Amino acid sequence: xxxxxxxxxxxxxxxxxxxxxxxxxxxxxxxxxxxxxxxxxxxxxxxxxxxxxxxxxxxxxxxxxxxxxxxxxxxxxxxxxxxxxxxxxxxxxxxxxxxxxxxxxxxxxxxxxxxxxxxxxxxxxxxxxxxxxxxxxxxxxxxxxxxxxxxxxxxxxxxxxxxxxxxxxxxxxxxxxxxxxxxxxxxxxxxxxxxxxxxxxxxxxxxxxxxxxxxxxxxxxxxxxxxxxxxxxxxxxxxxxxxxxxxxxxxxxxxxxxxxxxxxxxxxxxxxxxxxxxxxxxxxxxxxxxxxxxxxxxxxxxxxxxxxx
Length: 309
Hints:
Blueprint: E1 7-13, H1 19-35, E2 39-45, H2 49-55, E3 62-65, H3 76-84, H4 93-100, H5 102-110, E4 119-123, H6 124-129, E5 137-141, E6 151-153, E7 172-177, E8 182-189, E9 192-201, H7 208-212, E10 217-220, H8 227-243, E11 249-256, E12 266-272, H9 282-289, H10 294-303
Parallel strand pairs: 1-2, 1-3
Antiparallel strand pairs: 4-7, 5-6, 5-7, 8-9, 8-11, 9-10, 11-12
């Protein structure tokens, strides 16, 4: 049962590359929770721990974590909230930190049979020096979200893989074999996989612009794919959620090479412990397809908030 007398603090903004996304998500979440009768305070989080603690004093009943990227979904803010002892939404410290590290996540999930793309961790200097893998391959930051910094390198490309000045995502670079085919994503809500969406980007691939620009991509929900592939994608998304120790909601992305038979073309990309809640975001869209409104989804997340330590 929902307790709508609760005071909910919504954390938004932050200082990561996904600050603008978080501001949009957080503002919509705050409005939705107010429409459900909660008392809501929106807090734009800065690099100021003392200021954040002061803003959360006296403690609210629940903290809705609407932050994205570094500082918000990598275990850092979760550690602060555990210290304060206030129930908060989404995953705890460990699950957040692990899922944010794409390479570590792949290694863990591969041990339980998750199909993952072949890849290596290279240094920025190695990637700048030339191909570290036969094209086509994908270059991505190890610990960023929203496709920030992701680049596809094809055999016909005649440009430098990375520009030294523009790569600001750290020294470690994840390089993965490019998986042809279609982009699928599955949202998870508690112990339930919601639906499978196919994402058809209008840009070269599902990059930051395709995710958040109006009309940047087309979402087909439910995806027009064989039932066996849909069920396997949902099974794998729920498996990832459970093995990584996620809480509340998560979203797992896949590539599906439809030229391969059966479910063999499915390949895990990543699990997002802090799915977006913007007007173009996928998990709220999947929930809506099942009759769960945006406001009801936000309220469900609040009512399943907890401390994890």
